Amino acid sequence: MVGQPRFEKNQVIHSDWYRALSQYEKPHLGKAGWQVLNTFVPYIVLWALMVYIVRNGVSLWFLIPPILIAAGMLVRIFIFFHDCGHGSFFPSRAMNRVVGYICGVLTFTPYEEWRLAHAGHHAHAADLERRGEGDIWTLTVEEYLAAPKRKQILYRLYRNPLVLFVFGPPIMFLILSRIPNKGIHARERKSVIITNIAILAIVVLAHFTIGLRAYLLIQVPVMSLAGIFGVWMFYVQHQYEGVYWARHDAWDPVRAALDGSSYYQLPKLLQWFSGNIGLHHIHHLRPRIPNYNLQRCYDEVAVFQEVQPLTFFRSLRYLGLHLWDEKAQDLVSFRQLKRSLQEAK
């Protein structure tokens, strides 16, 4: 199973290697600056190329390669945004906030609101009694069977791959992120307003310069593809065979990190585009390790290498996992549930 071997809290937090992880948490201005440079410059160049294609009557088929690359760049920009939210990208808190807001505008995600929700995700990951904050909607078998038919249909619809990975991400990033969540504080609500105003200003500027058609032909597919890849990454990092979940009284934050988060081993190019976030078991154990230190941490700390990596093709098998079975302590599919119910008759 992906999460083997099992890690116990006391065993980990009192170990020398765990205490030594603090050396990887130190942000580095030069490394962060270089990442910004090697990502934002190509992203701007790609945008210029795509605008040229649209505005000069070149076949729109030629948009496909730069759109794919730009979407990958946008995923990488989201990782910078993510690290800024953890206060781990730059040594300066002010720089993290400024760059976080800029990356948030480019990725259509309000910085402060997302930062708060993501902190909740880290605090509650794999805790069955504190689900629903910054994670994928997951019901237990018992909850699903006890739910009214309407909720069961809604849940099945939500967990359908077409909804979860194709239609859902563009709707979430382009539309739902424009609306403040209920109950958030003024600071988070303000970040939604600032982000929306900045996006509107970009749209207006695009209308008077490159044209609204050119902007939409580029922005919508780039944003949609980046969102699809990002949601898939988030899904597979916490939804896989052998993943750890527990009731709050038995919940162990160390196991939630090391057994409840996968090591998603991607080809080096995709690892670069995704900012090393596939090393998710390390990230959840020490969230303040910046993306540019994750691979070095993995290479130098042997215990992280004991976690069996999850490969891309293997991860596709987990598209069909839908419910948490508390008796089996594993995720199961709707088909498995139906079969077990038939056998129980």
Notes on the structure:
The chain is mainly alpha-helical and 345 residues long. It has one domain. The protein has 17 helices and five strands. The chain has helices spanning 9-13, 16-19, 29-55, 64-85, 93-106, 111-124, 141-146, 149-159, 161-174, 186-208, 212-236, 253-258, 268-273, 280-285, 291-300, 312-315, 334-344, and strands at residues 139-140, 264-265, 310-311, 323-325, 330-332. Strands 1-4-5 form a three-stranded mixed beta sheet. The protein has a two-stranded parallel ribbon with strand order 2-3. Strand 4 (323-325) and strand 5 form a beta hairpin. Helix 4 crosses helix 11 (212-236), helix 5 (93-106) packs across helix 10 and helix 6 (111-124) crosses helix 10. 35% of the residues are buried. The model has no long low-confidence stretch (mean pLDDT 93).
Mean pLDDT: 93
Helicity range of the residues? 55-70%
How would a crystallographer describe the biggest sheet?
3 strands, mixed
Low-confidence stretches: none
The largest sheet has its strands arranged as 1-4-5
* N-end to C-end Cα span: 30 Å
Number of E strands: 5
Q: Provide the gyration radius in Å.
A: 21 Å
Order of helices and strands: HHHHHHEHHHHHHEHHHEHEEH
| Class computed from helices, strands and strand pairing | mainly alpha
Overall shape: globular
Give the domain tally. Answer: 1
Beta content comes to under 5%
Number of helices in the DSSP assignment: 17
